[in-house]
Write a structure and sequence with these properties.
The protein is an alpha+beta fold. The chain contains six helices and six strands, in the order βββαβββααααα. The termini are far apart. The protein folds into two domains: 77 residues, NE0471 N-terminal domain-like; 58 residues, 434 Repressor (Amino-terminal Domain) (Orthogonal Bundle).
Length: 147
């Protein structure tokens, strides 16, 4: 996946950012999950939140002259998840935990590389919907075989 680049950003409190990508596509992303994370608390302040700007070279969005930032790839992934176009990282990680799968075991179960699972597990890349379907299928077959 090529690194995503942002051309413009508009922030609307309490947690919405509208992003125009280099491709011309526009995405609205709710970054509410960041607001309670350590180091991001100031984003709860509406005036501060409104100061969002595109980082140099379009690699992310930042507030307070770089005091707080979110990288473009994370915003892209989150936007795809929220639009229903990607399997949420939290659900993928819950699938691994529920089934007691390591990174290597998850890769083997899905027929993909361990490196790809690392990217998905860490939220570094959007997880395609077909991976969600593969997880559900693998889990269903596992339960049927155990019965």
């Amino acid at each position: 996946m090529n690194q995503q680049k942002i051309t413009t950003v508009n922030a609307e409190a309490p947690s919405l950012v509208t992003i125009q990508w280099r491709s011309g596509k526009v995405t609205r992303v709710d970054i509410g999950e960041y607001l309670n994370s350590p180091g991001y608390e100031r984003l709860k302040e509406p005036k501060f939140f409104a100061t969002a700007v595109v980082e140099e070279w379009g690699h992310g969005v930042e507030w307070g002259e770089g005091e707080i930032g979110i990288d473009a790839d994370s915003l892209y992934r989150l936007g795809k998840e929220q639009a229903g176009l990607a399997f949420p990282v939290s659900e993928f990680n819950e699938w691994m935990k529920r089934n007691g799968l390591s990174l290597s075991a998850a890769a083997h179960a899905l027929g993909i590389t361990r490196r790809t699972v690392v990217y998905y597990h860490g939220g570094y890349k959007p997880i395609p919907i077909y991976i969600k379907l593969a997880c559900l299928g693998w889990e269903t077959l596992s339960y049927q075989q155990a019965a």
